[in-house]
Amino acid sequence: MRRGDATARLRAVQASRSPQELTDALDDPSPEVVHAAIGRLAELEGPRAADPLQVRMLDADLSLVADFAKALKRIGAGGVVEAAIAALGDERYSRRLAAVRALGALGDRRAVAHVRTKLNDDVAGVRAAALDALAQLGDGSVGADCARLLTDPMPHVRIAAVRAVARLVTHAGGLLVAAEDDEDRLVRLEVAKHLAGLPEPSARALLADPNLRVREAAAASAGIRQLGALSVLLIEDPSPDVRRACAHTLG
Question: Which of 13, 107, 122, 123 is the right S-S partner for 93, CB 3.0 to 4.6 Å?
Answer without folding.
Answer: 123
